[in-house]
Amino acid sequence: MPNVVTVLGVIVLALGGLMFSSTSLTALPATIAQLWLLLHLAPVNADGIAIGVLPMLPALGFVSLISYRIRVAVRERVSLPNLLLLVLFALLIPIALTLIATAMMWDASRVFDVGPPPIAEAVARTLLLHMSAVMIGMGSRLWRALARRFGAPGWLIDAAVSAMRILVAMSLVAVLALAVLLIFSWPRQVEVAGIYNSTGAVVAVSLLSLLYLPNAIIMTVAVLFGSGFQLGAASVSLFSIDLVALPPLPLLALIPGSVHDWAVLGLVPVVAITAIFASRVRLNLAQAVATGVFAAAFALLASYLTSGEIGELGESGPMLWLTAGMVFIWITGAGIISVVFGMFMQYRVAARERALAQAEADAAAVAADDSKEAEEAPEEEIIDGEVIAEDAEDAEDIEDTEELSDEEIAEEAPDGGEDSEAPADESPGQEEPEDSENSEEQQPDSQKPAATD
């Protein structure tokens, strides 16, 4: 369905362009074929000029449309045969249309000053674009299910997703870098605009630069990874800039004339972004290497799609293998460093936990000893308490005895009369019975008991 919609849109656009330019409709088949090939980044030959670096903004829009339709198709449960058919149709139909467009361009070359693109390169770029759309549209959830189905490790999918996110984050950094370059290159922008005589021409070249903006972002990402790009004989990197006469385009006017001392700081975002993603995902060593491999593959794909020949300038675009190698080195290296640092921090945390556990064990042992002493301490207090209680009882008995003695003395005191009072210095001895006998003898006879019969 997206291919049908795209073909219809291409036909409408071709008709509108021919009518706007007052061109004969005999050029309609060649125009339709050329627009289809342009949409798939296939090289263009016109008037003896070959252009292999084509604007990526329309291609990215087309890929987004296809990936969205595929995501809608596989949103619910999908069987493996249906998924296979979907992928085959998504790849084979565009390739067939590219072959038809190439044949149409070959046929039109006998009438118009155009030529067919290299068929192998046209098919390869079409296949890569639609494969990218299919891979993005399937989504990580379906890819994980396929990995489980075929016994592949799930962390490979996580590594691929992490690599894509790192490159997207680096693309945002590249957009920020281009905005800064636009501010500093404003005098050159004014100079480029002064070359054109009309406002329409300025608007046209500005729109052309906007169409090539994704190409510029990819080239800037290559520079930020320590690689570079070339525009024919000109080359640009963080370490050197060698320029030649370039077409008067606002996008090319962003390139500074020389390298500033702070340009090397462009390598910092790579390490920072990779470290952030590695810490969030908690990669291991194998995942860090796999992330670097996937990122290098994605960078190689993007660099290939933005490379080619530009007329008299020659070969242009990012340095393919150097860019892929630098992406692998930086992302893998930063990922491994992050993993090692995370392992070191985990070791420190584990050591701290072991120290805390040992301290808690020691504290528990001390508490156990204290509890044993506390258990022994109440027994001694109980014994002391018993002793104290016995002493208290003895004291009470003594007090009671003393009280009883005093009471007995108090009761005997009236009976004894004055005789009972003895001098304090006289001690009771054996004389007491004599006194009692004398007292009995002194009693009158009347007081003696009468004799009974």
Automatic annotation (TrEMBL):
<feature type="compositionally biased region" description="Acidic residues">
    <location>
        <begin position="376"/>
        <end position="443"/>
    </location>
</feature>
<keyword id="KW-0472">Membrane</keyword>
<feature type="transmembrane region" description="Helical">
    <location>
        <begin position="192"/>
        <end position="213"/>
    </location>
</feature>
<feature type="transmembrane region" description="Helical">
    <location>
        <begin position="259"/>
        <end position="278"/>
    </location>
</feature>
<feature type="transmembrane region" description="Helical">
    <location>
        <begin position="49"/>
        <end position="70"/>
    </location>
</feature>
<feature type="transmembrane region" description="Helical">
    <location>
        <begin position="319"/>
        <end position="344"/>
    </location>
</feature>
<feature type="transmembrane region" description="Helical">
    <location>
        <begin position="164"/>
        <end position="186"/>
    </location>
</feature>
<feature type="region of interest" description="Disordered">
    <location>
        <begin position="367"/>
        <end position="453"/>
    </location>
</feature>
<feature type="transmembrane region" description="Helical">
    <location>
        <begin position="82"/>
        <end position="106"/>
    </location>
</feature>
<dbReference type="InterPro" id="IPR045931">
    <property type="entry name" value="DUF6350"/>
</dbReference>
<protein>
    <submittedName>
        <fullName>Uncharacterized protein</fullName>
    </submittedName>
</protein>
<feature type="transmembrane region" description="Helical">
    <location>
        <begin position="126"/>
        <end position="143"/>
    </location>
</feature>
<feature type="transmembrane region" description="Helical">
    <location>
        <begin position="285"/>
        <end position="307"/>
    </location>
</feature>
<feature type="transmembrane region" description="Helical">
    <location>
        <begin position="220"/>
        <end position="239"/>
    </location>
</feature>
<keyword id="KW-0812">Transmembrane</keyword>
<keyword id="KW-1133">Transmembrane helix</keyword>
<dbReference type="Pfam" id="PF19877">
    <property type="entry name" value="DUF6350"/>
</dbReference>
